[in-house]
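Page 37, continued from 36.
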């Protein structure tokens, strides 16, 4: 499975720092991640609580967790990427 570049940096940089490389890239990655999380949280607090109330967050987390295998297949390239066009030429009656 191929990791997103930001996540890969957060995984690889501590290993490289242990070998003596500079911590600058890791620090910038962590700062960027913290800024994104803060922006999403502040936006939700200001604008999103009416659309997504706090009580529905556990359902959202379980929904995302259920989608993780799909996201993994998309990132790794194993997902079917072909468009399946619906046949709209046939006419069906209401009974089926």
């Amino acid at each position: 499975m191929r990791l997103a570049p930001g996540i890969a940096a957060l995984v690889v940089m501590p290993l490289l720092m242990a070998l003596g490389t500079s911590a600058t890239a890791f620090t910038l990655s962590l700062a960027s991640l913290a800024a994104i999380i803060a922006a999403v949280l502040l936006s939700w607090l200001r604008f999103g609580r009416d659309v997504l109330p706090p009580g529905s967050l556990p359902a959202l987390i379980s929904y995302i967790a259920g989608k993780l295998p799909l996201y993994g297949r998309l990132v790794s390239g194993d997902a079917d990427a072909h468009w399946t066009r619906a046949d709209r030429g046939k006419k069906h009656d209401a009974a089926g």
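The mean pLDDT is 80. Flag for discussion at group meeting. Residues 1 and 72 are 7 Å apart (CA to CA).
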